[in-house]
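YM 10:42: Inositol 1,4,5-trisphosphate receptor-interacting protein sequence, as discussed on the call
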Amino acid sequence: MPVGIFRVCLVVITAIVNHPLLFPKEDGTVPENTEEIIQKMKEREETLRLEQLRLEQEIADQEATQKALEKAAEVVEESKEEKVRWDMWTALSMVIFLLIELWRQDFQEGNWQDTGAEEDDMAVLGKAFKGVAFPDKAVLATFYEKRILGTTGDMARMREMVEGFADDLLEALRSVCNRDADMEVEDCMGVGSMYENWRVRKPFVCDLIVPFAPPEPYRFQSQTWCSGDSFPPDEQGYGTIKVCRADEHGTGCICDKTKLGEDMLCLLHSQANTTRPSSEMEDLLCFKNTQYLDADQVMKWFQIAVTKAWNRISHKYEFDLSFSLLDSPGALKIKFRSGKSVAFNLTPVVQYENSDVYFISHFPQSSLAADPPSSTHWFLTFAVYERRFIHLVSKMLPANACHVSCLQILSFLHGKQCSLTGPSGLTNYHLKTVMLHLLQARPSQDWAPEKLEARLQDMLKFLEKCLHEKKLCHFFIGNGKVPAELGFPIVFQRAEPLNLFRPFVLHRDVYRKTVDTFHEMLRNMSALIKEYTVHIPLAHTNGIHKESL
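YM 10:58: structure's back
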């Protein structure tokens, strides 16, 4: 635009300078061709006027173009800001949509419970106990004496009978097995509530584990989730068992690793003492085409062996023996001619290295573990150490300590509540784990018999806290405070804690049912205890013991 103005000014100055009237001739006379000159000046003026109009038009066009560019830039900037605002609203809408979808999933199928109300309801036994009067010491003592204490003698007599019969059955099993080809069965051991003296539910069932080992020259090589290799979360608590030769990955005889020559003979092994080819691993109860011990194969072998053993000694007894559960290898039931029956579990296990930790093939019905990931995964049981720990701690507690009484009362209340409202995700093993944690956490004098009420409340508070957090750690795994007297394997002490409540994180419906059952048990606690003390005659107490909880 400045260039155009300059050009206009230059034209105007030139016209003024060249005007004939501005610089007249010296003689002062008007020339003869004045009209012609005037005509030319008019033409020149017209030309300059047109040039000025053209320049003004160009300047106007340039200004219009500049304004158009500025307007276009403003439009682009506004569009960018609008896009940013739109993206923000889009993201916010997506977040709101996801929140609504999560809310719908949480409260579908009629579960219209407010999250805040659920948190308040789970607030450390606050409202739950305010609405229900907790039984006092006298009521608890009377209930324990009438309802629970009388079962101790029954458990002792049943343990003695079952152990004697199990020893005879296993001895017959060894006699029917081929020592050179079949698994070697060791003596059985009693574990669980019957041998820790806190079982209250009828019918009483003894749990016996039977360690077994492969025939020579084979051995078991175990591998657990905490042995260094990575295991997925659903396989924590499990391990695998590999069947290999005794000299494999070890210090076996060198005759299998070195060619001795035709004229040399190993003094330890002869040609008759040869091992089986690896293609026959199924004879060693392994999974097909692998060297890993198969729990299903073990189940079939054990059931067949027990059946053969019973056929050999059945003539000595005046009762019948049968398998009570088809999906459990050693769930046996003794049926007397009078109609009475006695149930017990005889479960095959594999020892973990040189410890009292065992790989268990199958858990009894309604027990802790769910179905394993595969038949080559074995769950680890620490039942022997649990029994040993309770026995060790009991020596340091006051006489007639209330730890077992608390566990029995809690087990009774939970079992009775489940019989009324249906099963929940809690098991007796969870309740025992709570007791083990409190036994380690509280001083020994806190377990005096007169403190039964306080310790029972402690167990309920601890259990509700664990339910609220959906976290109950296994007592031994990851516990660095296990007494050294137990000889517990250090590898499990250094492992990451194992959460027994992990299924509650994965299954919300089971969790809600468990929490509802627990709160209902708290509300019904006084009524249940009074029902089995005040309203039941003492003469009928023994009859109550026969109820199935």
